[in-house]
Design a protein that fits this description.
This protein is of the alpha+beta class. It is built from 22 helices and 8 strands. The chain has helices spanning 8-38, 40-43, 57-67, 88-104, 135-148, 162-174, 177-196, 203-227, 233-262, 268-295, 303-334, 356-366, 368-383, 404-415, 433-441, 472-484, 493-527, 531-554, 568-596, 601-628, 636-668, 677-680, and strands at 74-81, 114-115, 121-128, 156-160, 424-429, 446-455, 458-465, 489-491. The strands form 2 sheets. The protein has a 4-stranded antiparallel β-sheet with strand order 2-3-1-4, with helices on both faces. A 4-stranded antiparallel β-sheet has the order 6-7-5-8, sandwiched between helices. It is elongated, with a radius of gyration of 29 Å. It starts with 7 loop residues before the first helix and ends in a 16-residue tail after the last helix.
Length: 696
């Protein structure tokens, strides 16, 4: 042995020190990122402009309004209602309270009461630039107005309007972080206890996932400061779900392999090294594929979708980093006793149990074509449920528990069916303001138009249309205004909803092919085949269609959801394709490894399913459960996304991955690896090579 080469005892001490060094690194890392993670809530924004399309007309209106004197306006409607008809005392009370609001706050105009034709309702539109863009100031303003406008003796008083709706939405999003985190942790903890059957082991990956979530918050805060990435309540909530869901999946794969290696190695550190060599590359490759698919959302025009892409990718990569560094270090330091009471002994072999996945694989292997065709027909039939999807989601249906702003909107809609209760905002160059005002007043569907603030070369016009909000007539009027007012911008809540729907459809056409192409290219490189990647991508696309179909059948009759969020098809596609391919990598890489060792295609497919099926099923259950947590949230968009992704993950785990991919691999034989070497001729007497694999 040369003098410069370290002695075995030195090397042994170094290897023993590695886990302690990793833990110390994470302790230092948490101390450094702590202040940044805690600041993420400060940069979270849930204004309308943060969810709107970047280039839409309504977005330009919102941005220009911020530059006008006083900044962004907060528009409210005070709604006074009595079922039997308002009394003289009711009207006097309403007038006094509206005057008190005008006295206590700086308004753009004196509130003027507008009675309904049936005499049951009186509304006072109120607009103020006092809060500006500050969300806390707006919430305080809305709260003070609600405190002033109070009913009694059968007189109901509600404060609605766009400003109140925005405040209520921000309050809901702000309240999500705690319940979402606690519920996710509880769900993952219960599943891990059931999977591991150990009173201690479940806590280790759960703690590591929590630290990964903390790290991801700090990284996202840095991205916001450095690149101005939009951080919304929706994107931060989904990031937490992904960190715990994907992180727990990676932990399941690693722990399963580590438990197996403990029977072959006397020292836990050696067993962990072998486990990382065995499943680490597969986990890294699959998480990289997920991140690449999520980053395709950067091509979306919708601000909320474009911001969610990198934020979700950060969550996946932070989960990967934690599970490949801190989790192995903690498991080595805790030793075999962490598995108590089922402690794997050195020299032992895993107890052979009757495998459910072996039985399922055998049934798929006996008649692969019949299984493949019947499964495809089933998915296609389920996908037909898409045609039963409820229509586009309206503002009043965006909450599962209606806040005051929504009940006020419903009261106005019932009391004023003949007119609009929320104006359309037009921003026009100041030099053409008079001509624009005249043109707007003569446009079909317009009831009235008034001139508002001016500044920075722009003038604000408030246009009242003849039709109720979000009706076909109002939409036609908005389109007519946009066609007639060249050089001007038409916005407001209804225009924003129209732009959301149009941009979501545009983003779907652009991002879906981009995701498919990027994932396909990565799979071709990883699997060294063209047929196998096409098979995986086709499978996850079929899962997406079937999941939306099931949602279409159940959203309204079972969940009581009256509309579909415009961004649901795109976001569910990105998540289901990225996460579904994640599991496919584990299965097909194990199948490829078996083929390289000389196994016939049928045997290789069944062996891969038998050895990876249990771990993948556990991971799928955890991921589906974590996304299922979203169905308990009070926002319709989150409920719908959680439902579709949870159903899709379960379909992918127990139907597509188990039966369809396995049966297709058996039916295609070696052709599944075409045009690679394995696809040209049977692999006989090939040496076993270290390929990416989830577990042995």
């Amino acid at each position: 042995m040369s003098a410069g080469r370290p002695q075995p005892e030195h090397r042994s001490r170094l290897r023993q020190a590695v886990p302690w060094v990793v833990v110390a690194f994470w302790v230092a890392l948490m101390a450094v990122v702590g202040p940044f993670a805690g600041s993420l809530a400060d940069v979270q924004r849930d204004r309308a402009v943060d969810y709107l399309p970047a280039g839409a007309d309504s977005t330009q209106v919102a941005k220009i309004q911020d530059t006008l004197p006083g900044g962004e306006s907060t528009d409210l409607v005070l709604v006074y209602h009595r079922d039997g008809g308002l009394t003289a005392a009711d009207r006097a009370t309403a007038g006094e309270q509206a005057a008190a609001v005008a006295r206590d706050h700086t308004l753009t105009a004196t509130p003027r009461g507008i009675p309904s034709e049936d005499g049951t309702t009186l509304m006072f539109p109120v607009s103020s630039t006092e809060p500006g863009q500050d969300e806390e100031a707006r919430a305080a303003f809305v709260g003070e107005v609600r405190g002033t406008a109070e009913g009694s003796g059968g007189l109901s008083v509600e404060v609605g309007g766009p400003g109140a709706l925005m405040t209520d939405a921000q309050e809901v999003y702000g309240s999500l972080d705690g319940p979402l985190l606690y519920t996710t942790v509880a769900v993952v903890a219960i599943l891990l206890i059931l999977i591991y059957r150990s009173p201690f082991l479940w806590l280790v990956p759960l703690v590591v996932a929590g630290l990964a979530d903390f790290l991801s918050m700090a990284v996202v805060y840095g991205l916001n400061q450095g690149f101005d990435i939009t951080v919304s309540g929706q994107s931060s909530g989904v990031m937490t779900i992904l960190v715990f869901g994907a992180g727990t999946d990676y932990a399941l794969l690693l722990v399963a392999r580590y438990r197996e290696e403990l029977g072959r190695w006397a020292q836990p550190r050696d067993a962990m090294a072998a486990a990382l060599r065995g499943c680490g590359p597969a986990v890294v490759a699959s998480s990289g594929t997920v991140a690449a698919g999520l980053l395709c959302l950067l091509a979306a025009d919708l601000n909320s979708s474009r911001g969610m892409g990198p934020i979700a990718a950060v969550g996946v990569l932070c989960a990967l980093f934690a599970m490949m560094t801190l989790l192995p270090a903690l498991l080595v330091l805790l030793g075999r006793r962490v598995f108590w009471p089922l402690v794997p002994a050195y020299g032992s072999t895993p107890k052979q149990r009757r495998s459910l996945f072996a039985a399922m694989g055998s049934s798929a292997g006996r008649r692969p074509v019949a299984v493949l065709v019947s499964g495809g027909v089933l998915l296609g039939a389920l996908a037909l449920g898409v045609f039963s999807m409820p229509g586009d989601l309206k503002q009043e249906d965006s909450f599962t528990t209606k806040p005051e702003s929504i009940t006020a909107m419903e009261t106005l809609s019932a009391a004023y069916p003949e007119r609009s209760t929320q104006p359309i905002t037009v921003i026009t160059p100041t030099g053409r303001a008079d001509d624009t005002l005249a043109t707007a007043r003569t446009t079909d569907g317009v009831a009235a138009a008034e001139r508002g603030r001016s500044g920075g070369g722009w003038t604000e016009l408030s246009v009242t249309v003849q039709d109720p909000p979000e009706s076909a007539g109002e939409q036609a009027t908005i389109e007519a205004l946009r066609g007639a007012l060249e050089g001007s911008h038409v916005g407001g809540p209804s225009a924003q909803q129209m732009d959301l729907e149009k941009t979501s459809a545009r983003d779907l056409k652009l991002v879906v092919p981009l995701v498919i192409l990027s994932v396909l290219l990565i799979l071709v490189v990883l699997l060294r085949s063209l047929v196998a990647p096409l098979l995986l991508v086709a499978a996850v696309v079929a899962v997406w269609g079937a999941s939306l179909g099931i949602a279409g059948l159940l959203f309204e009759p079972l969940l009581g959801l009256q509309g579909t969020d415009p961004g649901l098809p795109l976001l569910s596609f990105v998540f289901l394709v990225a996460l579904g391919v994640d599991y496919g990598i584990f299965l097909l890489h194990r199948m490829r490894e078996e083929c390289l060792s000389g196994a016939e295609p049928t045997a290789a497919a069944l062996t891969a399913l038998r050895t990876t099926g249990g771990v993948i099923a556990s991971a799928g259950l955890v991921l589906a459960a974590t996304f299922g947590v979203l169905t308990s949230m009070p926002m319709t968009g989150l409920v719908e996304m959680g439902f579709v992704i949870a159903v899709g993950v379960l379909l992918d785990t127990f139907l597509v991955r188990t039966y369809l991919v396995t049966s297709a691999s058996v039916a295609l034989g070696h052709r599944v690896w075409w045009p690679g070497a394995l696809g040209r001729k049977p692999a006989v007497d090939r040496p076993r090579t270290p390929e990416l694999t989830a577990t042995r």
